[in-house]
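Service request form, structural biology core

Requester: graduate student, group of Dr. S.
Request type: structure prediction, single chain
Budget code: on file
Notes: please return the result as structure tokens.

Sequence provided:
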Amino acid sequence: MKGSALMSLLGPIYKREKGKVQPFIPLGPFQLRLPFVHYRFEVPDFLQGLLMCAVCLGAIPMLQEYLGMPFEIALTIVILNGFFYLWHAHLGDPVIPGWITPAIPLLLLWLKTFPMGVDRIHALIAFEMELGIVSLLLGSTGLAKKFVDIVPDALKAGILLGAGVAAVKLVFDPGQRFDHFPWTVSIAIGLAFYILFSNHFKKIRVTHKSLQFISDLGLVPPLLLAIVIAPLLGELPWPAIKWGFTVPQFYTLFTQWTPFALNVGWPALSLFVKALPLVIAVYIILFGELIQADALIDEARKVRQGDEDIHFDANRNNMIVGIRNISMSMLGPDVTMCGPMWAAMQVVVCERYKQGPEAMDSLIGGVGSFRWGTFTGYFLTPIVTLVTPILPIALSLTMLVQGYVAVRVGILKARTFNDLGIAGVVAAVLISRGALYALGVGVVLCALIFGKDFFRKWPNYDKQKDPVFNSKISL
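Core staff response, request fulfilled:
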């Protein structure tokens, strides 16, 4: 193909008309974009991605603990997952994808009900494939939003509350990570909470560029601190830095840990039935992240109004999430799952985008360059070996921060006192007996307490109609 014909197909090199959509190649419901051709490569976001790959590597200890995987195989799964992260920006979805973090504790609790080995791998394959199929179908049919709208707020709140408490339990249960690294976890999480949630830090960071830079790095400062203080406190060894490049073990992964392996095979149909309640619970959490993504991108678009027409399509995101989960279930089963957005980093990139075209030409360029950064970091042995000793700390930080956010969001999902009461019971049942019992208890309680209002239009529900809401508490 001649150069002129190729450029005619690809379109202009990342030049858009003012106020229009970034150039792309139409691909059905997707918008195919290539780096350097359809968007400007953003170096600051790429460099930040190099550092933040440490958080992604936090999946390794979970894969080792719950599936018994060797380090090299777990790292290969992280790399494979990182490849699928690239699909979002390059298929037209202006988000930084990540794990379905609030749902990880729920999945881990469910997996622990199966014996270690092939049975547990089968359960994970069935769950992840079914979640992918549900996401793909709901996204391609446009039914995603309608599905979540019919779920009562009390049930949504209960699932989020349960996920939050379960995340904290994974760190503080007897014999878990806090017992092994009490000082490192305490100091690192203290710094993380101060940077992410402290009112005092929010006030002072606007007056100091260095503090704003630290704020933009999210969990990186606590992780770097953990690398230093853990060996000083005698809780972890110093990192043994090695030079070179990571060599993924794709052949071993495919022949020993996937449904195509002779020693694994495909899960029974009954496992898909058992996984369905958990799939429903996880999808409700997943859709909550879609709502947050839409709000963040809408806010960023308003700041750059008249410059770039950038929109979030929940159905397109659902389709990509579905394809990723189905693919990972067959090529590298992963306990972190393939989620729609990494909320913390999406906020960071959107804030830089708001600074104007000089800072970031297109939001697609920012999110795409960031994920190129994390993907590159997986292959750099110095980065991988630097963070390897503190991966249990990285996982603890992720779980505790996510627990905090999930509980906060779960409480805010409740619109009435009755919602809160139901949510508390659902959360407790979810943690103690699993998703199937929790969904059953939640539906029964909503039917008993709300009666015919069970089928109300939940997003527009007037809380004043709830007689319990305005009742006074007698002391």
